Write the structure tokens for this entry.
Amino acid sequence: WDPELCKFFDIPMEILPS
């Protein structure tokens, strides 16, 4: 996941797989 996508979807990076 891209940090920009995480911002866009408001998803914490730590809950996502690489």
